[in-house]
Amino acid sequence: MVGTYTAVARVSFPGLALVDSDKQAARVSSWAALMRTFCTEDSPVTRLSVHQRCLPDDGAALRSWTAQHITADAPPAAVSALADVMEGAGPAATSRETYLSITLSAARARLAIKGAGGGQVGAAAVLVRELHALGGALSTASLQVIEWLSPRGLAQTVRTAYDPDAQVALATANAAARTPGWEGTEEGVDPDLAGPAAAETGWGTYRHDGAWTVTYQVRTWPQAQVYATFLQPLLRPRRNARRSMSLVYEPLGPRRARQELAKEKSKRSSARYLRAKTGRDESEDERREVNLARTQDMARASGQGVVRMTAVLSVTVTDLEELETACAEMQADAAAAGLELRRMWGAQDVGFAAGALPLGQGLPDRRTGF
Fold this sequence. Notes:
22% strand
């Protein structure tokens, strides 16, 4: 987006599935505490995004590591058996990549940017300063930063989203670049080659290089209490498709949060008054919405932070005949998680940028062009 600067980190997280409910709640609370630090009037950070995608693992990195660590006196039978295992298991394996994007608003940080020298150099300096300040908060939230992506690293992530078939070749090249004797080879992709060679936007699909993607936005979140792991089905490994999910958070300062929640309360109260005046009965859904608006305003008044949040899901296939099956599986898994999805008709290119790329992009209020 214009006037923003984004840094992207590849992160790891200990997970929630294999810990008890108390530890799950503690980790979720630590993430909420991290969000709360940005809900201030003077915070230059305008957006945080968590992006995760499930990819087929070609096994190139594993084969390279094994070749480097097999000793010369290893039994030939053991070496042969290990090669057979990797050859059979590699194509069936999957891996998950998780990214955290931090977006800084140049308008909010204009004084700090001016003090750092102005221009893009000053903006980059302020963003780096914010990233250093985040170190402790990320550790408290149980997030481990593996690396802040370089331009070539980010370009590779974008490239493999547009062209899934490039995943194997790039993984092999990166493994070779880490091999002693290949020090002159750089990992990643030239940023000029990050985008698609060709792309075509349809009304309900987005075609890019040798793949097709359909993107959905989450329109309704679970209305009942759920476990901390309720989103796991969405990234369940699939042999016929790759999936990606972006959770986009926009922290609100206290003043704007108060205005937004006041509008919501007024809207609900006005609707309630009109129903009573016309003699209509109030449904349980309407009563729940009024109570929810009041509860949120009470939490805000007690010092809780308020964020706007959305989620975007993308499913990508390299065989067009598999697309509708992959979409049906995605919608079934979303229903199992208690989510209601809406296909982003007429905005699949925008949806791809938000859901399939870890760039921390938000969504426009409305579609203004084609």
